[in-house]
Write a structure and sequence with these properties.
heterodimer, A: alpha/beta, 2 domains, 10 strands, about 25% strand, globular, B: about 425 residues, 18 helices, disordered N terminus
């Protein structure tokens, strides 16, 4: 169980984002402690992806603030997010299909040799190391990632997020495209990362995964926060009620 | 690679190529090029593959080939540049005006050694700035590259016209003219030295890459494959040098050169041309652009952006600034191409570079650059330019009527892309 006594790792306070008059995110506050998994739940279009993209730097919020370790920070682009050790695994994976695994893993953060040229051999070696840990069956280091299976592509995206010492990890439906075995692999990885004190925001539709993987769940509906609950203290029925009806459980 | 070895000797030929890790697409292009050469050689009773014609082919290809390397970057990032022919004309006009009017006006006499370099710098700056400006409109103002460069095609063609009042400007500076082709070559000895140096560097690069892989304990090709690769490289480079050296300077030209120095030509004296400076420039551009494409962050970002712009942006790549850089590079290369083209003519003419945009785009596309973005090679584009030029001069030598020449080139362009699409479908390399 995560220790929630100190300052939260991340706090998103009173965040609002609107697109052309439509409030995609409406005064939402969520937080995340080290070693904790917080599920972000809601229907498609509830605003969870938009909210989380403010943290990963893909969108800018209109109002509200983000605090990391209790200090207010400015995140204007993905580079800022990376500077605060925020890593994101996007639902689309955000891989450049024409490049190989190593180029994708280090995209935007290439290792360079003293001459200033990119050091492909070193990057491939590092990629082999981390893939050996995450997905030991992975062999296709020379092929562009479009030649990989869904699970293999997913493991490249995960490797990219994990490699750079993430403190805050955002996972947008990481198991949506995976088979049961690969889903199990992701579940084990999440346990591992929790144990290392990494905080994880998990966007997830599958209620069983939520009950299994998350410590807390924040539910959104129509851009607003319905509420945040401790998963241990509620049933899956309660959470479904929050998602579908926007009703807070009364226990 | 280890896997290739393990797969057995069953399917002989394919496996050799696999072991060598040759790009099959490159092989296809080289094959097509050789076929074109042989067919024309037969049709012209052996006049096509003479040192003289090969020499001419290479210098005719340089201008388009230089621009085609830049067009690869432009197309890989999912853009297009229709303005390159016009931009070439504006750069050429700027360089011509600088060396024949501006600098002499400042008191620098004809033949002053400062004139050529100064004119070239003016041209490069012009090309770079205009390219960057167009890239800024594409990247930051989000106007489609097709429109920006279509506008540019009209604007820069007519800026060149306005600058020169439509007049031909020349003759250009003597040392400037040496960059055009036949007017400036390395000579036989210099060419051999260059050829040997290039071979050594290429083999060292192959050996270095192998060493790096061994250091990281990656699978490597068998030693014989590396050896064969080095041997082929050496044959290609030295063979090319030998052919260019075999093209002999006509004796009347030699005699005039001796007379100009106040000497008399010894009886039986001969000299070969060797590698033209313009071809050296193309080689330098090709090497630099290949290194940029494969071994720099800039190149990595260009290909990543072409493969998946959203992913590139989420990885923190500034794709807008990247667009500016890509178009600026294209502009600088247009200036270099304009330098070679005007130097070859020995003057700037109002129609210089007309329709070059189509030749450049065709060269890049025939060379395997995918208009969908993300895929393309520098050597492919240069080969594409060479194939186009061979077709055109071959047909001219055979005596094909001008309209049919263009019809054939057009059909070849479409066919080349069709074959590429079919090939990629079959290999699943879409």
């Amino acid at each position: 169980m995560a220790d929630r006594t100190g300052a939260p790792l991340v706090e998103m306070r009173d965040v609002s984002v609107s697109f052309g008059g439509i409030k995609a995110v409406d005064h939402v506050t969520v937080d995340l402690y080290p070693g904790e998994v917080v599920g972000l739940l809601g229907h498609n279009g509830a605003g969870k992806s938009t909210l989380i993209k403010c943290l990963s730097g893909a969108y800018r919020m209109d109002s509200g603030e983000i605090l990391i370790d209790g200090e207010k920070v400015e995140i204007n682009n993905p580079r800022d997010a990376r500077r605060y050790n925020i890593e994101t695994i996007y639902q689309t994976l955000a891989l450049a299909d024409n490049l190989d695994a190593a180029s994708n893993l280090f995209l935007g953060r290439e290792l360079v040799s003293p001459t200033g040229l990119v050091d492909d051999a070193q990057m491939e070696a590092e990629t082999r190391k981390i893939m050996g840990r995450l997905n030991p069956n992975f062999r296709k280091f020379q092929d562009p990632v479009k030649a990989l299976s869904g699970g293999q592509r997913q493991s490249v995206a995960i490797a990219r997020a994990v490699y750079f010492n993430a403190r805050i990890l955002i996972m947008d439906e990481p198991t949506a495209a995976l088979g049961p075995q690969e889903t199990q692999m992701v579940a084990e990885l999440i346990e591992q990362l929790k144990a290392q004190g990494i905080g994880i925001f998990l966007i997830e539709h599958d209620i069983h995964n939520v009950m299994k993987l998350c410590d807390r769940a924040s539910v959104m509906k129509n851009g607003q926060l319905v509420g945040t609950v401790n998963v241990k203290e509620v049933t899956d029925e309660d959470i479904l009620g929050m998602i579908i009806l926007g009703k807070h459980p009364h226990h | 690679m280890a896997e290739a070895n393990a797969s057995g000797a069953g399917a002989g030929r394919r496996n050799i190529f696999k072991t060598l890790e040759f790009d099959t697409r490159l092989l296809g292009m080289v094959g097509a090029f050789i076929l074109v050469c042989i067919v024309f050689n037969v049709l012209t009773d052996g006049r096509f593959l003479t040192p003289r014609n090969i020499f001419n082919l290479t210098i005719q290809t340089v201008s388009v080939a230089i621009m085609a390397t830049g067009m690869v970057f432009v197309i890989v990032t999912r853009n297009i540049d229709l303005s390159v022919g016009s931009l070439l004309a504006t750069c050429s006009a700027m360089m011509a005006i600088t060396q024949t009017q501006l600098l002499p006006g400042l008191g620098l006499d004809y033949g002053n050694p400062v004139i050529a370099p100064a004119a070239i710098v003016v041209g490069l700056v012009t090309g770079g700035l205009i390219g960057a400006f167009q890239g800024w409109i594409v990247g930051y103002l989000a106007v489609p590259a097709f429109i920006v460069s279509l506008g540019g095609l009209l604007v820069w063609r007519n800026v060149a016209w306005y600058l020169t009042s439509g007049q031909t400007i020349g003759p250009l500076d003597d040392s400037f003219q040496t960059l055009g082709g036949i007017g400036g070559t390395l000579g036989v000895t210099g060419s051999w030295i260059f050829g040997v140096l290039a071979t050594v560097v290429a083999c060292a690069a192959i050996a270095q890459a192998r060493k790096a892989r061994i250091n990281h304990e990656f699978p490597v090709k068998p030693l014989w494959a590396e050896g064969l690769l080095m041997a082929l490289t050496a044959v290609a480079i030295l063979g090319f040098v030998a052919i260019l050296n075999a093209y002999e300077v006509p004796s009347r030209v030699l005699r005039r050169a001796f007379e100009a120095r106040g000497e008399t030509m010894p009886e039986g004296f001969t000299a070969g041309y060797g590698i033209p400076y313009s071809v050296l420039l193309l080689i330098a551009v090709a090497v630099v652009m290949t290194v940029v494409a494969l071994r720099t962050r800039l190149g990595r970002y260009i290909f990543a952006t072409g493969g998946n712009p959203e992913a590139a942006e989420l990885s923190g790549i500034n794709t807008r600034l990247l667009t500016v850089k890509v178009f600026a590079i294209m502009g600088v290369l247009c200036a270099l191409a304009g330098m070679v083209a005007s130097a070859r003519l020995s003057f700037h003419s109002n129609d210089i570079g007309t329709l070059d945009e189509l030749r450049v785009i065709a060269a890049a596309v025939i060379g395997g650059t995918a208009l969908a973005g993300g895929i393309g090679t520098i050597y492919g584009a240069i080969l594409g330019a060479l194939i186009m030029q061979s077709l055109q001069s071959g047909m001219a030598m055979v005596g094909v009527d001008a309209p049919f020449q263009n019809i054939v080139v057009g059909v070849v362009l479409v066919l080349a892309v069709l074959i590429d699409i079919l090939y990629r479908k079959r290999t699943g390399d879409a």
